Amino acid sequence: TVSALLRLQARRIEDPGAASALNEAVRRIASIALVHETLSSSSDNDVAFDTVLTTLITHALELSPRMGEITIMREGELGLLESRLATPLSLVVTELMHNALEHGLAEQGSTLSIKLARYSNECVVTIIDDGVGLPDAFDVSTSSNLGLQIVRTLTENELKGTLTLTSTDLGTTAVLRFPL
């Protein structure tokens, strides 16, 4: 698979930055592949997103650079989503979880909460970490972080939604809203 080839290449690269970039590409490809795998076993164009999310959470924990104990709490459901929404949403959620696991959470005893809500005309996904928070002057709209650029682009262009990030000394909250 493409992911396997990239993993092999990453193991051969001596530059830690380049290896990290390839591993991030593997993570992103795996998110897309998961939705497509789910679609291939379905008879229609809908994806059971809650099932996809369970696998995304498992993968995020397995690939996490954090060595300490991390708890992921999950609340709510989104149910069936059209593939046109499920694919970008899986990437957005993967990126937000990865950012929290890599940058936001403390080494031990940290919690990442994922709250899902589906209404008649919109879905809301909230991801909350109890980590260090964002830098004071942080602005998601001007961030040069590739993961957040991907999140912003997919949220605005594919999901036609909005993303807000708020931060305190108690952690960071990302709220993603998108229409159905």
Q: Would you count the extended β strands for me? A: 7
Return the string of H and E elements.
HHEHEEHEEHEE
Q: What percentage of amino acids are in beta strands?
A: 25-35%
- For the record, the CATH class is Alpha Beta
CATH architecture: 2-Layer Sandwich
Mean pLDDT: 84
Strand order of the largest sheet: 2-4-5-7-6
User: Distance between termini?
Assistant: 32 Å
Task: Evaluate the radius of gyration.
Answer: 16 Å
Rough outline: globular
Structural class of the secondary structure composition?
alpha+beta
Instruction: Determine the fraction of residues in helical runs and give it as a percent range.
Output: 40-55%
Counting DSSP H or I runs of 4 or more residues, the number of helices is 5
Query: Which residues sit in consecutive blocks of at least 5 with pLDDT less than 50?
Result: none
Count of structural domains:
1
Task: Report the CATH topology name.
Answer: Heat Shock Protein 90
User: How would you name the CATH homologous superfamily?
Assistant: Histidine kinase-like ATPase, C-terminal domain
Biggest β-sheet: count, sense, barrel?
5 strands, mixed
